[in-house]
Amino acid sequence: MDSQTKERIQTLIQSSPIFVFMKGTKLMPQCGFSNNVVQILNALGMSFETFDVLSDMEIRQGIKDFSEWPTIPQVYVKGEFMGGSDILIEMYNSGELKEKLEIELAS
Amino acid sequence: MVQSEAVSSAIRRALPDAQVSVEDLTGGGDHLQVTVVSAQFEGLTRIKQHQLVYGALREDLASEAIHALALTTSTPG
Fold first, then answer.
1. How many Cα neighbours within 13 Å face the side chain of A64?
2. Which of B55, B52, B57, B47 is nearest to B8 (CA)?
3. B47/A87 touch (CB, cutoff 8 Å), yes or no
4. Is B50's CB within 8 Å of A68's CB?
């Protein structure tokens, strides 16, 4: 990954307390896994920003290297990688996600 | 496309004690539901647990031979 891509990613994840790299957009997710994450964050009433990796090959590959995570979607909270679809679903179902987001966003 | 059996054995090479179950969600071999139970996950965050499994499947994921992988990890008992 070149340093320009890395800088773009760092700027993106700092641009919103909750930032999601996904396939498609909030209104039109292009993949079921990305859709899961959008639905969960909406259900919790969270506001978040997204980036459509299908629109940019540099970011699409770069974010996988950056997070050391091979799949999309990827959720960042306060600049920290929180996980992908499976982890978000698990945390949502256990109630852990709501709790954690409330704590992170309050601080 | 990869065979479920190949996925299980790749994971067991990385995590020899692992109990692995692979469900092929579409029958096409590229949308998989994988559950891994291993004592090696003890004390690791979920992200680290998943990274261990992804590491074992790095090539198949990079080539998109596996397009979609739903992963659940846990420790035994």
1. 14
2. B57
3. yes
4. no
Cβ-contact B61, A71 below 8 angstroms: yes
In this structure, the strands spanning A80-83 and A18-22 are: unpaired
Residue type at A34 in one-letter notation: S
Domains in chain A, please, with CATH? 3-106 (3.40.30.10)
- Closest to A71 (Cα-Cα) out of A80, A55, A84: A84
Question: What is the ipTM for the molecules in this complex?
Answer: 0.74
Q: Which tokens hold the place of B30?
A: 């590229």
Amino acid at A5: T
**Entry field: residues in chain B:** 77
The distance of B17 to chain A (nearest Cα, Å) reads: 23
Indicate the pTM of the whole model.
0.86
CA–CA distance, A42 with A47 (Å, rounded to integer)? 8
ω into A73 cis (within 30 of 0)? yes
Number of domains in chain B: 1
Query: Do the Cβ atoms of A71 and B51 come within 8 Å?
Result: no
**Tens digit of each residue's pLDDT (9 = 90 or more) over A41-89:** 999 999 999 999 999 999 999 999 999 998 999 999 999 999 999 999 9
